[in-house]
Design goal:
Oligomer: single chain
Distance between the termini: 26 Å
Strand content: under 5%
Number of strands: 0
Number of helices: 21
Length: about 425
């Protein structure tokens, strides 16, 4: 065992944020990023310098393809802005035609959007875009027609939309009101937040609006300060994780937390079972909001982009390297053979965010197990908010990730070496 420890990789280390200088170095002369995996690795290791965060997020969250040229991105920007504006205009027109006179003010100008003194502070606060370059300007008429056709083809269920608006109007007034971007009565940014959420709900009726989407969107608005771009980032993000906003999807996610803890620490899992806390509902907020309420707003932004880098996942190159490294170590330990075709079984549902959950639980294991019962346990866990060191937890999560990889390889060797 000592020999193995000497050959194991050194503990993970956090690095400074991705700098403007390093970011520029990723582009070729045509404006393409040639090494997407390297960008994701730098984001994972240290997050992103705030001065370049808006630009990097446009790639990280899918507005721009990493291999796009500068000219291609200009067209993408114009196309997405026109398409969003067409969608927003469509639901507003449909809603106006379908609402009764006594509904109109409530649906279009809720009280919280009105400034002190009665002025309307919301609804049409979309940020003005700079004039497009000449080669894009020539295509604007065509792109505008495409956007109108696209919006016109989308079905709208007016009952579903009105129901979503009622829930949205409960959440928006409470959204990050301590943050400068959303402070003060009648803040137009609240109107932008509302419009984006309604636009998403109107054209995604199967998912609609759920509480928590406002928290995700607020990050995009604060960073990008652009209504249309925030909508597309939200849309692409929710396309990937939408099942987690459905009851079945989140239950399955929490069950995966339970399964992972059982693989890594059976005694700890037994404690949660005995305490009747094995549904792990206390992890729900962590996972749904990517730990937004557990850290300061700025730290939570950094953690959000680190998790969204997807650099360290079970299907990533880093995991494959770790498994191969451990295969070689197991060969030295056991004297067995390493087959090129040996398949190490890992659970690809164990995403890195689950290892962050596990890192939190392991860091406070002694206190949690001493609580003895559900009420005390909830009190401890709720008390962790704003009192955790994000960098330390990220190091711990990465260590747990590689520990799981090593464990999976070792178990695979045990199966191969079982007597027949």
């Amino acid at each position: 065992m000592a020999a193995a420890d000497q050959t194991d990789p050194s503990p993970p280390k956090r690095q400074p944020a991705l700098s403007p200088e390093k970011w520029k170095s990723f582009f070729d002369k045509d404006g393409r990023i040639l090494n997407e995996s390297d960008v994701r690795r730098f984001v994972f290791r240290g997050g992103i310098d705030p001065s370049i965060r808006p630009e990097v997020w446009r790639y990280l969250f899918g507005i721009y393809p990493f291999n796009s040229t500068e000219r291609e991105r200009e067209v993408v920007t114009a196309e997405l802005k026109l398409r969003y504006n067409a969608l927003k205009s469509r639901w507003k027109s449909v809603l106006e035609l379908s609402c009764a006179p006594d509904e109109k003010e409530k649906l279009f100008s809720p009280a919280y959007l009105k400034r002190d003194g009665g002025g309307d502070g919301g609804g049409d606060a979309a940020q003005s875009a700079a004039a497009p370059p000449p080669h894009v300007d020539d295509q604007l008429v065509f792109l505008q027609m495409q956007a109108q056709v696209y919006a016109g083809r989308q079905e709208i269920d007016i009952k579903v939309m009105k129901k979503a608006i009622r829930v949205i109007d409960k959440d928006v007034p409470r959204n990050d009101r301590d943050h400068p971007y959303f402070k003060e009565a009648g803040n137009p940014n609240l109107g932008v937040l509302r419009d984006v959420l309604i636009t998403f709900a109107a054209f995604h009726p199967d998912l609609g609006y759920s509480q928590g989407m406002n928290d995700i969107l607020s990050r995009f608005l604060v960073v990008l300060d652009d209504e249309q771009e925030a909508y597309w980032c939200l849309t692409k993000y929710l396309e990937r994780i939408h099942v987690e906003f459905m009851e079945k999807g989140m239950v399955e996610k929490l069950d995966t937390v339970k399964q992972l803890l059982g693989e890594m620490d059976k005694e700890y899992l037994a404690f949660f079972v005995d305490a009747e806390m094995a549904d792990f509902m206390f992890c729900h907020r962590w996972l749904l909001l990517s730990f937004k309420r557990e850290f300061s707003f700025n730290d939570a932004l950094t953690l959000f982009e680190i998790l969204s880098s997807h650099h360290l996942e079970m299907c990533s190159l880093e995991a494959e390297k770790a498994k191969r490294r451990e295969e070689l170590l197991e060969k030295e330990r056991t004297g067995g053979e390493v087959s090129e075709r040996m398949e190490v079984m890992v659970n690809h549902e164990y995403t890195f965010e689950l290892f962050v959950c596990l890192a939190i639980l392991q860091r406070y294991r002694t206190d949690i197990m001493a609580s003895g019962e559900a009420c005390g346990l909830y009190q401890i866990i709720n008390g962790l908010s704003m009192h955790m060191n994000m960098e330390e937890l990220l190091v711990s999560a990465e260590e747990l990730f590689f520990k799981y990889c090593r464990k999976s390889v070792a178990e695979c060797f045990m199966e191969l070496n079982l007597p027949t």
